[in-house]
Please model this.
Amino acid sequence: MGYSAAMQREMPTGADHYVRDAADPRMLSRALGDLAGGWRLRRLAWALAWLDTRNRYRGSVFGPFWLTFSTAVMIGGLGLLYSTLLKLDLREYLPFLAVSLILWNMIGQIAGEACLTFTNAEAIIRQMRLPYAVHVLRIVFRNAISAAHSLPLIFLVFLLCGRLPGPEALLALPGLLVLGTCALAGALLLGMLCARFRDIPPIVTNVMQLAFFMSPVLWKPELLGEGQKWLVLNPFYVVMEVVRGPLVEGGAPASIWAAAILFTAALVAVSALFFVRFRARLAFWI
Model:
């Protein structure tokens, strides 16, 4: 025992990053230091995310704007179809659909790529001592860049439908903060879970497909009638609604904000506990 303890004390600082002692009282401070270090290196994460975007569309004429074109076609086609099926006014339904699809595309892409947050960064993790939080920020930033290319569609649809949002649209900014916090916490949790259990990514894919149809993305919440009150139990709906509501409906009810903040706090707490407890083992999982 004494020899083992002496070996640990003489371990190089680089290897100290991968100590697997789960009872180490410094786990919390190390985890917090990792998160703080990742935030200090956010410019590096942004540069890596921008490089990923450029490499993904290398040789393409329109680059990430292909996603914008495909989203525009989806909005036009689904808008005409579902406004007819659901007997909705196209000028009222189209802005709702445009915001919904762009938000859902970003959420779905983050959920899918979050599963590979650390496994795709295996070479970097094994060769360089970077905070794990950098890889999480890289995933979120990369998808934020992709989503930003579709933002002009929202303004174009609003102009075509003659439904420009009022000053209450500024409430979408704290909504984006809630969404971004969920994205970071979710990417951290899913990245670690999928590094440990390789069966989780297909489960996440199936859950997101089901959530797409169960959440008000293509259909409006009021179509549920009395059942609308149960939508606050859907975390995807409330997180989207705090952004979509101010843009489309002039705001979101207090119950929606409360549910979104509650779900976000719960996700952050679970992600933080998991990261503190198993961060030192992550290098051995990938």
